[in-house]
Amino acid sequence: MGLAIAHQLARRGHAVRVISRNRNEAAGFVAAGMLAPHAEGLSGQLLTLGQRSLALIPQWVAQIEHDSGLTCGLRMSGIVVPFATEDESRRYPTSALGQSLTRKALEQEVPGLAPRWQAGLLFEQDGQIDNRRQLMRALEKACVSLGVQFLEGAEVQALCRHSDSQELQQITLRTAEGEVEHHPCRKAVLCSGAWSQKLVPELPVFPVKGQMLSLQGPRKALKRVIFGPGTYLVPREDGLIVVGATSERSAEFAAGLTPDGQSQLQAGIAALLPEASQWPPMERWWGFRPCTPDEGPLLGEGPISGLWLATGHHRNGVLLAAITSELLSSALTERQTFSSPDKNWLQHFRWDRFRTSI
Ligand SMILES: Cc1cc2nc3c(=O)[nH]c(=O)nc-3n(C[C@H](O)[C@H](O)[C@H](O)COP(=O)(O)OP(=O)(O)OC[C@H]3O[C@@H](n4cnc5c(N)ncnc54)[C@H](O)[C@@H]3O)c2cc1C
Question: Which residues contact 295 (CB under 8 A, 6 or more apart)?
Answer without folding.
Answer: 46, 314, 315
